[in-house]
TrEMBL record:
GO terms for molecular function: ATP binding; calcium ion binding; GTP binding. Keywords: Acetylation, ATP-binding, Calcium, Cell membrane, Cell projection, Cilium, Cilium biogenesis/degradation, Coiled coil, Endosome, GTP-binding, Membrane, Metal-binding, Nucleotide-binding, Phosphoprotein, Protein transport, Transport. This is EH domain-containing protein 1. Gene3D superfamilies: 1.10.268.20, EF-hand, P-loop containing nucleotide triphosphate hydrolases. The keyword Transit peptide does not apply. Residues 53-284 form the Dynamin-type G domain. Signal peptide: none annotated. It comes from Sinocyclocheilus anshuiensis. It is found in: Cell projection, Cilium membrane; Early endosome membrane; Recycling endosome membrane. It comes from the Eukaryota.
Length: 533
């Protein structure tokens, strides 16, 4: 349990050496006292520990059985991990935390939840039925130096979901969702169905949409036309379950190291994989901000919870009719929510789920609830209004110092450099490995246009070039960038090579590629290469 002193709590302003230390101190001295007083941990989430603030970013994989969750992890690491089982049937029947360790091996759940260095101690509350299905697979892999990955049992469908797991599966996933940095929902493009259990799981993750990403896996097994239909059906199904106006980001691809069955959409799959990899690689740099954001979310919920509990305590009679009053208050909880909203100007979105709260209150002894304690609320308000702002400055400094820190190794290295990097040899990169100037192939046709523009001393002015280049119908912002890149010697005129280069860049843009920020060396006209050197 946490300890704190009044002397430490009175420090103002708070000074922190780093974000992790600051978050731990703010939680211990300001938020935890409020949570403990108003029984927050009995209703919402167990108390946080130091390991929750110190741990590496975690990625949670969720999906129905045989959607490729375990294969996805193996694809990222390019290495098998202890306890790994892959097959078309429900193979992974355990929660497996795949983490970095010098020695390869497995730590069983009961041993894992007593390790103070691991952020899993509070999972002890889910009992032996869960702990027997929980393990940590440790191995020395470069990907795991930056992130940890949580593999989950395949969510069942049809008759299989009637079989009880022996523990609250949705509650365990919700516990992980509060603490991870990214939640990846995997779907199989070949058998797209959302079972009742999967639907319940997604609803349990409702408050964490900002962490959620969706992967439509095994998309190489269907044709382009079928893929369009499957994608539309997936978005429609998710829209019914995730009741938000924002569209969840869906990555389409085939996430394993096997040949594509139908290679028609290879470029799409490559682009989608790179986008997903970039998202995962950004997690270490954004980890401090995510932890800060989660603490703010938790503090807002703890505040509302304190108002609810103290309001219920205030309405309770001192002697007679306690049971009947308790039932009345639970039934009228919606009205109490509305009253608190108006009195304290709190958004409805900050309140816990009404039905779930009523179920939890039914087994509580209202006489043991504490009365309203303004000092505890003031301390949390001060934390949100002052201390968090100071910590935010520190977050930005740490992020700036970590610009080069990203996930490395495994599949992340395979497309970083060389000819198999995404987009290599395409667009502005075309001709990068060739000895001849790539623009020279089409230069004769560009020269025909150039000499009809009546060049003077072998060059045309900007005004003359503009009349020709605007025929591409590209916006001026793009044409302005084309001019900047093509006017290699920066004299305000274009010679025949620079004019050819300008047309080549327009062609690149019209084919759907982005223009480079700086002109690549292989696109510099041959006559200008000595000048640049």
């Amino acid at each position: 349990m946490f300890s704190w002193s009044n002397r430490e709590g009175k420090k103002d302003p708070e000074l922190f050496q780093n974000v992790s230390e600051g978050l731990k101190r703010l939680y211990r001295t300001k938020l935890f006292p409020l949570e403990d007083t108003y029984h927050f941990h009995d209703f919402h989430s167990p108390a946080l520990e130091d390991a929750d603030f110190d741990n590496k970013p975690m990625v949670l994989l969720v999906g129905q059985y045989s959607t490729g969750k375990t294969t996805f992890i193996r694809h990222l690491m390019e290495q098998d991990f202890p306890g790994m089982r892959i097959g078309p049937e429900p193979t992974t029947d355990s929660f497996i935390a795949v983490m970095h360790g010098e020695q390869e091996g497995v730590i069983p759940g009961n041993a894992l939840v007593v390790d103070p260095k691991k952020p899993f101690r509070k999972l002890n509350a889910f009992g032996n039925a869960f702990l027997n299905r929980f393990m940590c697979a440790q191995l020395n892999n470069p990907v795991l130096e930056s992130i940890s990955i949580i593999d989950t049992p395949g969510i069942l469908s049809g008759e299989k979901q009637r079989i009880s797991r022996g523990y609250d599966f949705a509650a365990v996933l919700e516990w992980f969702a509060e603490r991870v940095d990214r939640i990846i929902l995997l779907f199989d493009a070949h058998k797209l169905d959302i079972s009742d259990e999967f639907s319940e799981v997604i609803k349990a993750l409702k408050n964490h949409e900002d962490k959620m990403r969706v992967v439509l896996n095994k998309a190489d097994q269907i044709s382009t036309q079928q893929l369009m239909r499957v994608y539309g059906a997936l978005m429609w199904s998710l829209g019914k379950i995730i009741n938000t106006p924002e569209v969840v980001r869906v990555y389409i691809g085939s996430f394993w190291a096997q040949p594509l069955l139908i290679a028609d959409n290879r470029k799409l799959f490559e682009a989608e994989e790179q986008d997903l990899f970039r998202d995962i690689q950004s997690l270490p740099q954004n980890a401090a901000l995510r932890k800060l954001n989660d603490l703010i979310k938790r503090a807002r919920l703890a505040k509302v919870h304190a108002y609810i509990i103290s309001a219920l305590k205030k309405e309770m009679p001192s002697v007679f009719g306690k049971d009947s009053k308790k039932k009345e208050l639970i039934n009228n909880l919606g009205a109490i929510y509305e009253k608190i909203q108006k009195e304290h100007n709190i958004s409805p979105g900050d309140f816990p789920n009404l039905k779930k709260m009523q179920e939890l209150l039914a087994v509580q002894d209202f006489t043991k609830f504490p009365a309203f304690k303004p000092k505890l609320l003031e301390s949390v308000e001060h934390m949100l209004g002052n201390d968090i702002a100071k910590l935010m400055t520190l977050v930005r400094k740490e992020e700036a110092a970590m610009t080069n820190q990203s996930v490395k190794g495994g599949a992340f290295e395979g497309t970083m450099n060389g000819p198999f990097g995404h987009g290599y040899g395409e667009g502005a990169g075309e001709g990068i490995d060739e000895l001849e100037w790539i623009v020279g192939r089409d230069k004769p046709s560009y020269d025909e246009i150039f000499y009809t523009l009546s060049p003077i001393n072998g060059k045309i002015s900007g005004a003359t070039a503009k009349k020709e280049l605007v025929k591409s119908k590209l916006p001026n912002t793009v044409l302005g960038k084309v001019w900047t890149l093509a006017d290699v010697d920066k004299d305000g005129y274009l010679d025949d090579e620079e004019f050819a280069l300008a047309n080549h860049l327009i062609k690149v843009k019209l084919e759907g590629h982005e223009l480079p920020a700086k002109l690549p060396a292989h696109l510099v006209p041959p006559s200008k290469r000595q000048e640049q050197n």
